[in-house]
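Question: does this match?
>
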Amino acid sequence: MRKEIIFTVLIIRFLLLNYEGKSNSPDYSACVSIFNLSELLHREDHVFVPAGDHYINETIIVDSFKKISGIIGKSKLIASPGFTGAILELNGVTNVEISGISFVGNQNQFSKLYNICSSRDSIREFEGRTYGIGIHIKNRSSECWISTCEFSYFGDACLRLSNSGGRRFPIGISSLSMSKSFCGVDNYGMEYSPTVSVTVTDCVFGIILDAGNQFFSACSFNDNGIGLYLRSTHPNNSHGSFAACNFNHSAVFSIFSDGIDFGETFSGCHVFDGDIFIENTNGFIFSGGIIDAQVFVKGGKTNLISNTGFISSYNGGKIYANFEDSTSRLLLKNNFFFTRNGRK
């Protein structure tokens, strides 16, 4: 009898240790119920998310000087059915690093929402938008780094950025994959923060950019409803740059520049199949790339396309300045036409 009691006590102690995340048991990584990211972040500066499906039913607040890492494709943070908030929120924090995590939302109807992009007015209204965010970085957060993560099935945005970053304290974003969501990256007012090697596909909006001094390189915004929406509601809404980026096979517009007034530059970028619309814009500069799409210009001040090759597969080179009887000024310099063989 005494041996049975001792054995039972040992089993209970083992299970308690396993629940608190202190056991090295192989079954720990596969058990969803015992992993509590929020609780662990209160105790640890670096939390490793084990392989498995970890369901989240309330927003996890990430404090400064925290690191969250996992195994990409295996360490999954999944929004529970009915949960409509952000999975992770970084609010006014600094020195946070997140890597190797797969974020999964609970919305999946976006392939049917491309009809909201059927007109410029409907784009501005965002009809059909639902809820759910992967990571929300806001309120002057700085020196945070998001890398090698996956995002899918979010009703608001995979990554929402609000009034953060800055000249000395950037937010670094790199090597992310986003798909099947309402918006890949939604950036309102985050400045001086580089975005490198981000791929967004099968979203209604690849990226909504309403911020100045933002820099993008080697990114792909392909097979979305709208590849890039340059919006002008923020007081400091543009004068950033895109280098070596793709905006291909968009259902409606590859690039829609809507009322920006400080300029935006595109260097070595490609636009295939999905038109460019430049409306009430000043300082839109596209140089050294390839355009196989139509270009529409309505109103605005001076804009420029130069040293660019046009292909005619998707009406490339058809340029409609002064569209809808507006007055606009589009400069065309050193551009050329060429034919191609094979497929893109």
